[in-house]
Amino acid sequence: MILATAVSAVLAAWLLLLGLFARRLQADWREPVLAAPVLIVESDDWGPGPPADGTRLQALLRVLRKHRGADGRPPVITLGVVLAAPGVGVSVAANLALEYSPSILDEERYSSILAAMREGSSAGVFALQLHGREHFWPLAVIKAARHDPQARAFLQGGPTAPRHEMLASHLQSRWVDAASLPSVALDREAIERAVGEETACFRRVFGAPARVAVPVTFVWTTDVEAAWARHGIRVVVTPGSRNVGRDAEGRLVADGSILRNGDPAPGAMCYVVRDVYFEPALGHTAERTLQEIRERHRLGRPALVEMHRFNFTGDPVEADRALGELDRLLAGALRSIPRLRFMSTEALSDALRTRDPALVDRRTAARLRTFVLRAATQHRLRKLAWLSGLALPAVAIYGAASLLLPGAGHPKSAVGS
Ligand SMILES: [Zn+2]
């Protein structure tokens, strides 16, 4: 009787625990398990700028061409492209505001940048992705320019395209009106119009439709997703959840979603997750990033590495150092990760969507083993699982699955408390 009561209590505790973490655990289970380690470097913000940006892109090309993955293919850097920046602003003297006059990437003065993008794309080492026609919501910046001198200087433009990085972080968001904080949602028609414009602009500039969208500052809404789906986008790059606005301090406001690699999105789209950060200009090193990449692979996930344009376009000494660090990262990854593969984010998402057996491990034992590994990364769940004893069946499942998989690791290394 006592034993039966104790067993019931333990089982009830386990059920409660599983219920508390159900959403995360379901996400851990449904996310495909990769059969081979995949590394993709994603570099956002490339677009209108001085001719020197074209030179930096050429230098990036040279670094990529030095390396080859396990299948003989070179590394791919996805370029999150911005298509327009302020040209020469038109002052409206009455209210001291400015109008926005866009200068588009296919203008002659950006020819060296566009040529490098096209060369890299033809060579299969640059994959062009849509970041946004602008890296801001023009009406919000026009409004902010009335009281914000930085926004005003930005809109005034000049002989070289001003960098959006000079704007306050919240004004760099595109899919909310952050002229004042907290931000205000955009209406659906305005979003539809802007997405129609930006996808048409991408097609005109590159002669091919955009298939992958990277939300600017990772703030976007389901209305934006629906519009992207209607205009040919097939993949949305995310940080793992959706941010839908900015709070009174300009911080990101998440909507509580859990987005995983291969999760279906509106239309025929799917999500991917980019959550490794490699910004040498901010002090990130190849060694530290390599650890993060290896951790993604341990959990059966691709490693999508974020590396912004600003690493390469500032002080030339710093830019060279960033290139060198990227070179070291690629060399170190190839040296220490057997079977490492490089590909574009679009190719990865195609494989995830179709559960391509060449890249996705569909064996139940592999899925179970990885599920336990992923669950064990949730600190609170792991602690409570050991306290309640739920960790014991988890270790047993992990051990049994590992025995069925040649070359899999020892249980102790995976779920130790
Ligand atoms: Zn950006």
What layout of secondary structure does this protein have?
Layout: H1 2-20, H2 22-30, E1 38-46, H3 52-65, E2 77-82, E3 84-86, E4 90-92, E5 97-99, E6 102-104, H4 111-122, E7 126-132, H5 138-144, H6 149-156, E8 176-177, E9 184-185, H7 188-206, E10 212-213, H8 222-230, E11 235-238, E12 243-246, E13 252-254, E14 270-273, E15 276-277, H9 286-298, E16 303-306, H10 310-313, H11 316-336, E17 341-342, H12 345-354, H13 364-376, H14 379-388, H15 391-404, H16 411-415
Zinc ion binds near residues 131, 135 and 216.
Q: Could you characterize the architecture of this molecule?
A:
45% of the residues lie in helices and 15% in strands. It has helices spanning 2-20, 22-30, 52-65, 111-122, 138-144, 149-156, 188-206, 222-230, 286-298, 310-313, 316-336, 345-354, 364-376, 379-388, 391-404, 411-415, and strands at residues 38-46, 77-82, 84-86, 90-92, 97-99, 102-104, 126-132, 176-177, 184-185, 212-213, 235-238, 243-246, 252-254, 270-273, 276-277, 303-306, 341-342. It starts with a helix and ends with a helix. It binds zinc ion (ZN). Zinc ion binds at residues 44-45, 131, 135, 216.
In brief:
With 417 residues, the protein is of the alpha/beta class.
